[in-house]
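Notes from hallway chat w/ T.B., transcribed later so I don't forget. T.B. wanted the structure written out for a chain they're using in a teaching module, and asked if we could keep both sequence and structure tokens in one place. Agreed to drop them here.
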Amino acid sequence: MKFRIVILLVLLFLVFSCMNKDIETSKTKKNRVFRARFMVLDPGHFHAALVFKNAYKTVSPYTDVFSPEGPELQDFMNKLSSYNKRNESPTAWKIRKHVSDNFLDSMLYKKPGNIMVVAGKNSKKSSYINKAVMAGIHVFADKPMVINPKGFELLKQTLDLAKEKDVLVYDIMTERFEITTIMQKLLSQVPFLFGELIDGSVEEPAISKESVHHFSKVVSGQPLVRPPWFFNIREEGDGLVDVTTHLVDLVQWEAFPDQIIDTSDIEMIRAKKTPTILTKEEFRQVTGLDNFTKDLLQDVVDNQLYVACNGEMVYKIKGKFAKVSVKWNFRAPNATGDTHYSVMRGTLSDLIIRQGEKEGYKPALYIRSKVNGVGTKEVRKAVLEFIEPIYPGTVFEEISDGYWKLVVPKNYQIGHEAHFGQVATNYLSYLTEGELPIWETPNMLAKYYTIIEAYKMASN
């Protein structure tokens, strides 16, 4: 009898050992497949669902979501259901809900997966990330990770802890995968075309990033319903610490590729934030609520909601002047989407991304020669040697003397929603390697240091 019990215990041990291999959190060896299983924490923002718009070969279809009950959870479930049921490339996610007010504790206790996906209330995100790392869970987080100085201090501790725990903390920087941004970065590293990045000035920064966003938009084919807390800057963050995260990241990623950036390399020059004003009817259209919620009343003046969601900062990074600007409108003109403007100023030419009416509200990259700068010969050589081999079919056309436009094939223009899958695939490759690029974590810290310095300056 005792012998049978021993045999049974051994068999149970082997079974559970095999199960644990599927969600292993220890460091993987190079070229070994990392067996990933997602856990979603409080999916209050639609970005959480966009991570699941694609399937991934190394990710288990079994996913657990830990969340309070409510419309945000239901919206997440509806989006994943639509991805599973679509005709083209359907996914096969199998979602198990864990509904509780103590959803974080529930996730940490049950721990069915090894990667936490978090995209929700930004005010709590730094704490969520810290608790996950303490539990040895990898983190795939929507931006921003922090929205105030207290959150930044906790993030610094968390990143140090992540190194000790051997887990990878990664934020979802989708804009690195936008094709004209990639080409702008590539061409800025071609000396005979771009020269070198100028130092710039406050009035004419060496690199500028400007973004226009809209509260009313369409996501995955459906009008977006935003939760009311999205308009509360104490939960979502103000105009200097939200979308600016993407733009500050691009400044670092494009101007200083593969270089480690220290917080001492950053000097904030000026920063300001301003509100976008929403009527009660506009608020109703995007939230479905007839009245402003109690937490928003302190921001209501004359029955209109003042959302301090617009931000602008000018700063120096490694001696170069940079400018970042974000503006929110209620709805885009003619049902278009968010837009992006960017310029990198070189000694020989400027590289400019525009996304206006002339471009059909699609991003386009232009090359503008400086006086005594480059000509068509240099543009042709740069495109043939540095762009066409990586992105076949890319050509250029001359708009006017000393001004050219890159013509990018449509198959590379995949759109914002698809970038989430690209970021996730990139992250999974790092998990397989067992480490991030050497510059990624220090630059993440420098990025959040930059936006918090702007936040502090504008708040004084």
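Follow-up for T.B.: The domain at 176-420 is CATH 3.30.360.10 (Dihydrodipicolinate Reductase; domain 2). Might be a good example for the class.
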